[in-house]
């Protein structure tokens, strides 16, 4: 590599409009490259380059503040070195493919959670440069170098813009069967579980890090001293199985100044339940994958009577195991099947209501995850301790005049205002039955085989969350009535004809 070019003394302020312009032009450059096909290729390419740029800015700040700080990326592999060189074309492409990326994959740290060298090695173990033109790659790097990460306000602006990029990534990923939790729902769940300074918070299926970021910001808002802020920074944990969401999550953390999170790429179900109990946390906020299946080796990590291939049940068991020792609390998104299943699901729910207090079931309307899936979903809120006499159900209504959420009209946080007012604070005091809220006796739930698929008694016309068996029985009865009417009509026609 040739010596780095001299950087301009002062870069223009990176306003949101300027950032949008830079990103727009960057994407225009990528559209010209034959190696990138669609947003599922372009956005990850953008993400890892922006990550290296932002990370180098963070490293420079740390070096300036601490003489003894040892950068994770050194020499010609730093963005400030290779991105500012005069090399372009094939030599530039060769450097990125044959030197830079292999070096990042081979970084070795202390092995302790949060070590940046180990984190970078993990991130780039599955990252590749998909651009085929060294000249277009050079143009892209030059364009992204215009983003100024050094200013805190600019970093905050970039974080907001990055969230919009994540949304586009999610929209594109939806076509391949992956979907992510809407930000308003993430925020509401976090606010209701209310993680505090000193709590260790985990998302075992963190995706692009939405719950982790929200929990971090929620706890930071309550941190009053530098010591408390440092405590919060060390209190975040996360696991993500897939490499691309993990990269996007790490970029997300970097932009939100979450530098000490203990996050890893891997399968949160890969260890025996006993090991999960020995690694406890205070709070879990998560939307684990459902509808998928785990291999036999993963299933063997769970008790004999509770083994299943269904990921939703395995994650629910793992969540309980991680919360037991610290007597923690949880908000977890689950599909309708978790509520009405009475086989293995019934046994898991029995364990849940035996060891924990399932105090609230939030029933979400159709379209929360539209357009990726229309499967009705729910949120279970529970905490360590004896089961209350009642489980409260709250049916979140659609906004007036709306039948569904869509990509152009998604869920808004303001819609949760009524539920938040009804909630009753941290101790859930003063709850009353309303058109949306109703209690069900815990012993009645136990007698039913732990069927949680409860219809809102205050809305008899509701079909969204009625038990499938009830709907099928009603359809059969209606069909029988219809057949009886047709047969009667047939007889009358015969009699008339005679």
UniProtKB/TrEMBL annotation:
- List the Pfam families: HsdM_N, N6_Mtase
Keywords assigned by UniProt, alphabetized? Methyltransferase, Restriction system, S-adenosyl-L-methionine, Transferase
Q: Residue ranges of the N6 adenine-specific DNA methyltransferase N-terminal domain?
A: 19-143
Which GO molecular function terms does the record list? methyltransferase activity
**Highest rank taxon of the organism:** Bacteria
InterPro entries, per database record: D12N6_MeTrfase_N, DNA_Adenine_Mtase, DNA_methylase_A-5, DNA_methylase_N6_adenine_CS, SAM-dependent_MTases_sf, T1MK-like_N_sf
Coiled-coil annotated spans: none
- Reactions catalysed according to its record: a 2'-deoxyadenosine in DNA + S-adenosyl-L-methionine = an N(6)-methyl-2'-deoxyadenosine in DNA + S-adenosyl-L-homocysteine + H(+)
Judged by the first EC level, this protein's enzyme class is: transferase
Cross-referenced PROSITE patterns: N6_MTASE
User: What is the name listed in the Swiss-Prot or TrEMBL entry for this protein?
Assistant: site-specific DNA-methyltransferase (adenine-specific)
Species for this entry: Ornithinibacter aureus
